[in-house]
UniProtKB/TrEMBL annotation:
Residues 16-138 form the Putative oxidoreductase/dehydrogenase Rossmann-like domain. It comes from Actinacidiphila alni. Gene3D superfamilies: NAD(P)-binding Rossmann-like Domain (3.40.50.720), ProC-like, C-terminal domain (1.10.1040.20). Residues 155-281 form the DUF2520 domain. InterPro entries: 6-PGluconate_DH-like_C_sf, DUF2520, NAD(P)-bd_dom_sf, OxRdtase/DH_put_Rossmann_dom, TM1727-like_C_sf. This is Predicted oxidoreductase, contains short-chain dehydrogenase (SDR) and DUF2520 domains. PANTHER family: CONSERVED HYPOTHETICAL ALANINE AND LEUCINE RICH PROTEIN.
Length: 315
């Protein structure tokens, strides 16, 4: 079963949970791939090649993977036992298909993608060529700098793999400093949507809040928001919906109406998101008994009025 340039499954799932030492390649030197490869190097693996097109990707590779040569994707696969496919979600299926069709994939080669959206089915063309498919998605935002390697400590990874490779997948995550969390293939899109709502939308909301604070005269909105948002996040993670506070949860329809008047006057582009989040907050507050039904009607009326005016309608 063992051959030069390949990896035996039984070696990858050793009883002690420590994978064999592997040569590592990166296809797509964006923010994620070089950081994961650097973490694997700290665990004793050997990065040997990377591919990157833009000048930014080349700089990242040079910073995180010094002395690792840059080459075409097929050449990366030719040199590596473990290949990290760290490309955008929409690029991944075509990349895998192309690598398999051109014969770049070797039997016994570990192919790891880091997409949250996909499980291992997207790697089926490579699987048919004999590759060993793993989906290891780090639940972390990456900056493209060496600090990303440190942030992997304690980071959760969404793991999907065939049953015979589960131990190997989990061992690789642990070696990178992460915590494996098993995600079934069919649940990957829902899992990824949940993370996008929590992380991506949070950035947008915070940026909107900072813009509005600057417009109101606050010179350092980050300093003002930091303690508040830190406490809100901690409370939400600990207590869920019972951490809700503010005028929506209290049913202060007059305050919400005043907010919407100000937003229409000074930042009309934020009205739609304010109304959408306020409605979602009201639904959750109603469901857990925080928002009294007798206050909810006036509150929802204020939100409907605000949404109508934002669309150009009349109250």
């Amino acid at each position: 079963m063992e051959r030069k340039g390949s990896v035996r499954v039984d070696e990858m799932g050793k009883a002690e949970g420590r994978p064999a030492r592997l040569s590592v390649g990166v296809v797509g030197a964006g923010r994620v791939g070089p950081a994961l490869a650097a973490a694997l190097r700290m665990a004793g693996h050997r990065p040997v090649a990377a591919s990157g097109v833009s000048e930014a990707s080349r700089r990242r590779a040079a910073a995180l993977l010094p002395d690792v040569p840059l080459m075409e994707p097929a050449a990366v696969l030719a040199k590596a036992d473990l290949v990290l496919l760290t490309v955008p979600d929409d690029t991944l299926p075509g990349l895998v298909k192309g690598l398999a069709e051109t014969g770049a994939v070797r039997p016994g080669q570990l192919l790891v993608h880091t997409s949250g959206r996909y499980g291992t089915a997207v790697l089926d063309p490579a699987l048919r060529a004999g590759a060993l498919p793993l989906a290891l998605h780090p639940v972390m935002t990456f900056s493209g700098t060496p600090v990303d390697v440190q942030r992997l400590a304690g980071c959760s990874f969404g793991v999907t793999a065939p049953g015979e490779l589960r131990l190997a997948a989990e061992a690789l995550v642990i070696e990178m400093g992460g915590e494996p969390e098993w995600i079934e293939e069919a649940a990957r899109p829902l899992y990824h949507a949940a993370l996008a709502i929590g992380a991506n939308h949070l950035v947008t909301l915070v940026a909107q809040s900072m813009d509005l604070l600057r417009a109101s005269g606050v010179t350092e909105p980050g300093r003002m928001l930091g303690p508040l948002l830190g406490a809100a996040l901690d409370n939400a993670l600990r207590s869920g919906d019972t951490a809700l506070t503010g005028p929506v949860a209290r049913g202060d329809a007059g305050t919400v109406a005043a907010h919407l008047d100000e937003l229409r006057a000074h930042a009309p582009e934020t009205v739609a998101s304010y109304v959408a989040m306020a409605r979602a907050t009201a639904d959750r507050a109603l469901a857990n008994g925080m928002l009294k039904p007798e206050f909810a009607e006036a509150l929802l009326g204020a939100l409907a009025d605000g949404a109508g005016r934002a669309d150009g309608g009349t109250p």
